[in-house]
Structures are given as C-alpha cells and as structure tokens.
Amino acid sequence: MSVQTPEARPLSEEADFLQIKSIDHVHWWVGNAKQAMYYWWKAFGFRPVAYSGLETGNRRFASYVLESGTIRFVVSAPYHPTDEMAAHHLLHGDGVKVIALGVDDVEAAFRATTERGARAAWSPREESDGQGVYRTAAIHTYGEVLHVFVDRRDYGGVFAPGYQPLALEADSAGLAAIDHIVGNVELGKMNHWVNFYHKVMGFRLLQGFTDEQISTEYSALMSKVMQNGNGRVKFPINEPAEGKKKSQIEEYLEYYMTPGVQHIAMATGDILRTVRTLRERGVEFLRVPDAYYDVLPERVGAIEEDLAQIRELGILVDRDDEGYLLQIFSRPLQDRPTAFIEVIERHGSRGFGVGNFKALFEAIELEQARRGNL
Ligand code: FE2
Asked: Could you tell me the distance, in angstroms and rounded to a whole number, from the CA of residue 282 to the centre of ligand 1?
C-alpha cells in the first residue's frame, strides 16, 4: 500500500507546520542487537547509553541505544520468530526501520501529516515510568520505513520508558551529527516521494540531479534533495534510471527487497582523524582510482587539508560556489549490499558532492562486478 498524494493543498508557501527540531534517533532493526551494538561502539566510537531486554522486563526484543555527538542510533533484535521485527529481518536483513523526528507537539505533527495524506502507523500515545512521560506518534514513508514523531520534553530518563542506563566508555571517532539520510525508491517513484515530503511534511526541494549528471558508462540514477523548513533535516531521494547495466540503486532494491534507507551521512569536524580512526578499526571504505587525485588540485583549487593525507585515506573533495566539502563512503555495513554510511566535513558547501558522483559510481560498479551484480 502506498501513500496517497494529496491533491487539494497548494504546492508551496505554507508555514513550516511540522517544526522539526532534530533527527531524534535512527532505529536499526537487526538480526543480533548485541553484536550490532558492539560494531557501532568499538568501530564507530558510539557510546552505549541505554539497554532494554529480558533483564529490564522487555520480553519482546533486545535493544541498545548509542550516541556520538548529537547522533543517536538504536539497534534492536527480536527474541521470537513471530515478532514483526523477525519478519522485517527475514525480508530485509539489517536495516533502518525508523527515522525519528523530534517535535514539540506530537499530536499536531500527527494531525498535520495525516490530514495531508500520510498513512498512520500509530496515533499519538504516551508511555511513562518514574522518569516522566514519553510521547510518540508515527507515519509511514517509503518502503517499510516509519517517521516517528518524538516529544521527550517531559521525559527525564535515558532514552524511553523500558530502557535502563548503561555506563560504558567509548573512544569517539569524532562523528558529530547527522548531515543527511538518503532513501532509495523504486524506478519512477522519486517524484512521488518528493511530493510526499513537500505536501505531507512541508519540505522543500533543495537540489536535483538528473541522470545525465549522475551516470557512468553503465548505469544511472536520479536524485532530489528535500529539506525541512529550518534546514536541519535533509532527505535526498534516489531512483534508478535506465542504463546499460544494473545501477547501484537497482542492486539495493534487489537485496533490500523494498525501498529503504541507502545511507546515513554523518558530519565530523576533522575528517582526516575520523577516517584514519575508522580505517584503523576495520571500517571499510570505497576507493576511487588513483587518477582521481592527480587532477584534484586542478578541479577543486586550494583546500586547508593536506592532499597527501586526503589521497592516502581515499577521501573525496568537491567544490561549488559556496565552498568545498570532503566526503567518503563506506562499503555496505551488513552482508547484503544495502545500507552504508558517509562521513562528511563541510567548508561552506551545502552540496552533496555531485563532482564526485562519476568517480564514485565507477568505484561502486567495480564492487558490484565483484559481487556478480553488474
Ligand atoms: Fe550522501
């Protein structure tokens, strides 16, 4: 079932009715929460701050909350095969189930979005314990992903009722904030979801990339970036485009089985240190051909960072009118070639690295070919 695109509302110039304050958390549904927690903790330097599971009275699933800077990830896995989390895992493997959005008024956010055509997942509800009241409501977006509206202003506990604090130290890699979260949708559905974010959520189109801009000899994709009213939340939407061979988006859809979250970009203030740390801890990144670095100074001009280190670490650079950015993409984080992460450091540029797309996608295609999927 898909979201109906509402027709009655005017296209634009509505106030920012959702008033999203932040991305409250990203909830991964996985096969083994304990091991997923260890990966985010030991490789990515997230600090485990809360746990829910059998020992806390949760008979349904094991769940860990981890934080790095303002980023909050939750990883959960079910105890029983009949749980909806188990069905989700059977279909998708590990993946993002929830992108939760912090708001001051859950009731208003739920009403505003469902009136504009969002499909409800659950209506406003309150959970409480000795630490206060935790309010949520949820709507469906692409694939099986939910947007959960969260109001934690009256909740003083560590994450949500049912969770107990964990006192564990972490060695931060410098991942500070979520920059953007990208969704892959089916062929021909990009504009449907662009409309959804515009009409239902009050987002605006920030940038669009055509398949001519994002194509290699073999494959292509199209992408549009949607941004919320205050600019804090950016959701690019990708769809595959016709190419000679299978695009990376098609490969994703073939293994995730439905649309879903493709990558989460996390900002750092020192990408050289962050990437060096992550590499040392075994995080694998894509590497573009060395020729990329031979023409880099000519392409992007002067940058603050040491080019030898940029090349050594495999970091990509792009420049636009407003400044430049540094970015790098990991290999898939799980066995299926589905979700991955990006590390990004911005120096004025608000772009997404369009100048890197070609080199990058050629690198991805090399990996696709190794997987027998090109
Ligand atoms: Fe990105």
From this structure: 21
CA of 143 to the centre of ligand 1 (A): 19
How is residue 229 annotated by DSSP? T
Residue 140 belongs to domain spanning: 22-165
Co-location of 70 and 156 in the same domain:
yes
Return the pLDDT at 140: 98
| Span from the CA of 318 to the centroid of ligand 1 (angstroms) | 13
**Measured distance CA(167)–CA(143) in Å, rounded:** 35
Three-class SS of residue 62? Answer: strand
In the structure, what pLDDT confidence band is assigned to residue 323 with cuts at 50, 70 and 90? very high
Distance separating alpha carbons of residues 58 and 326, to the nearest angstrom: 42
Taking the CB of residue 257, how many other CB atoms lie within 10 A of it? 17
Q: In what order do the strands lie in the sheet with 323-329?
A: 204-209, 220-227, 234-241, 175-184, 260-268, 340-347, 323-329, 316-320
The reported pLDDT for the residue numbered 356 is: 87
Ligand 1 centroid to residue 263 C-alpha, Å: 7
Q: Which CATH number covers residue 60?
A: 3.10.180.10
Q: How many CA atoms within 13 Å lie on the side-chain side of 86?
A: 8
pLDDT bin (cut points 50, 70, 90) of residue 243 is confident
Q: End of a domain among 115, 145, 165?
A: 165
- Candidates 26, 7, 3; CA nearest to 233 is 26
Residue 119 pLDDT > 90: yes
264 Cα to the center of ligand 1, angstroms: 7
Average pLDDT, the chain: 92
Residues within 5 Å of ion ligand 1 by Cβ? 265, 342
- Ligand 1 centre and the CA of 296: distance in Å? 20
